[in-house]
Design a protein that fits this description.
heterodimer; A: 325 residues; alpha/beta; Ubiquitin-like (UB roll); Elongation Factor Tu (Ef-tu), domain 3; Rossmann fold; 7 helices; 19% helix; 29% strand; B: 129 residues; mainly alpha; Globin-like
């Protein structure tokens, strides 16, 4: 008989029982719906062993990679430690080693950690300051042996956390970081596939990580980045991106300014409009969308209608602009 | 065993190509539904991932695949939409897109008819009649 551990409790999974059935029998609250592996309401994550492949059918590839599974069709093949998607795993301490302004509105923050920490470029973590105030920010770098995490934090009007980062946080200070979350990241395989990445403002952070990851993993298909902002203060890393485009033949960069009457040599218009009109079809493309929730949701639909498969669209909407990201 | 015998012993779901066929059909089908101004308001959900999962469940059922949906489930799931005005004309439109999707995938007419018949059998439950 297999055992299922969730939080502090361990239960026995009876023969023929699914993980969902075991947990419900033990009065553990697990959202569920169709109970046939389709609606994905009962999504859970295995924290120790890879779940049976049959329990991952239909899940986004990035979620499969992170050992997510559908508990209603999961007959455990070995003992499992599981968690609900919103359950937080262990957090680690990290110290500020660098802080600099990228534009008057966006600060680059680099943290160093000592304890083991795993992530995919493009995922986000919750940053917690000593008094407990917590916000989510996307990781902008790829995993390296230096054990650092880079963030691009936009100062929001009345943003409690972002203002504090701007005005008070100093090199040497300690923060707590949650485990990395989110399914918007690059996976190797299908190296010839064209990639389209659209980001607004600090939505460039996860995209920057994803691009670095794709290039480090020898992605050979064209990679098209469209970075947009209303004004010049939201557009950053322009030189870095141009250098990258000069270095890699398959990387193409289009900075876009959507505000009226702003003098610049960037493309005039909204990044997602320019991105979508740049190609006849998105059939066969992989699409990454990060930033303003409205832009992300609209573009997701438009990219799908333009031929991208839903399985190939990865999105990270920066919700609640005042409080998140 | 001859080929024709093997074909007759297969279920509709197997003949259509099983889960791979559902995966091939779902994007095409959902794109048609979202592009149809008559019905897209019933399907327009900000969470497109969840919508796609639901469309997959629907297609799996119509293809004669494994499913546990009861008439009561169908009623409960669509009650909110019936309140929004869901009626027979909308159901017909969905049936149209199901047929067009399978035609686009070169499924033989005879199998399309079988899938359509399964989908049709849910009409009263979906419309809360």
């Amino acid at each position: 008989m297999r055992s299922i551990t969730i939080g502090e409790s361990t239960f026995s999974c009876q023969p023929d029982e699914t993980v969902l059935e075991t947990l419900l029998r033990e009065n553990v609250q697990v959202p569920n719906g169709c109970r046939q592996g389709l609606c994905q309401a009962c999504l859970m994550r295995s924290l120790d062993t890879p779940p049976p492949v049959s329990a991952q059918n239909g899940l986004k590839d990035t979620l499969q990679k992170q050992n997510y599974f559908l508990s209603c069709v999961c007959h455990p093949e070995q003992d499992m430690t599981v968690a609900l998607p919103n359950q937080q795993g262990a957090s680690v301490e990290a110290g500020v080693i660098k802080k600099r302004l990228l534009t008057p509105d966006i600060v680059q923050l680099v943290l160093a950690y000592q304890s083991p920490f795993n992530f995919f470029a493009g995922q986000f973590v919750n940053l917690k300051r000593p008094d407990g105030l917590t916000r989510s920010y996307s990781i902008a770098n790829i995993p390296q042996h230096e054990n650092v995490l880079e963030f691009h934090i936009r100062r929001l009007p009345n943003g409690q956390f972002s203002s504090w980062v701007y005005d008070e946080l100093e090199v040497g200070a300690q923060l707590t970081i949650s485990e990395a979350q989110g399914s918007c990241h690059y996976l190797p395989g299908r190296a010839e596939q064209p990639l389209m990445l659209v980001g607004t403002g600090s939505g460039l952070a996860p995209l920057y990580g994803i691009i670095a990851d794709a290039l480090a993993q020898d992605h050979s298909g064209p990679i098209h980045l469209f970075h947009g902002s209303r004004d010049l203060n939201g557009l950053y890393f322009v030189d870095e991106m141009r250098e990258l485009a000069a270095k890699f033949d398959n990387f193409h960069y289009t900075p876009c300014i959507s505000g009226e009457g702003i003098e610049s040599n960037h493309v005039q218009g909204r990044a997602h409009d320019i991105a979508l009109s740049s190609t006849e079809t998105l059939s066969g493309w992989r699409v990454f969308l990060c930033g303003h929730p409205e832009m992300v949701n609209q573009t997701k639909k438009m990219a799908f209608m333009k031929g991208a498969s839903m399985a190939d669209i990865y999105a990270d909407a920066f919700h609640v602009m005042q409080e998140h990201k | 065993m001859s080929e024709s015998q093997e074909t007759t012993s297969q279920t509709l779901y197997e003949k259509l190509g099983g889960e791979a066929a559902v995966n091939a059909a779902v994007d095409i089908f959902y794109r048609k539904v979202l592009a149809d101004y008559r019905i897209n308001r019933f399907f327009d959900n900000s969470d497109m991932e969840k919508q796609i999962a639901k469309q997959k469940a629907f297609l799996t059922m119509a293809f004669g695949g494994p499913n546990n949906y009861s008439g009561t489930d169908m009623r409960t799931a669509h009650a909110r939409l019936v309140k929004m005005g869901l009626n027979a004309s909308h159901f017909d439109a969905v049936m149209e897109h199901l047929g067009a999707t399978l035609t686009e995938l070169n499924v033989p007419q005879e199998l399309i008819a079988q899938a359509a018949a399964i989908a049709e059998s849910t009409r009263n439950d979906v419309l809360g009649k």
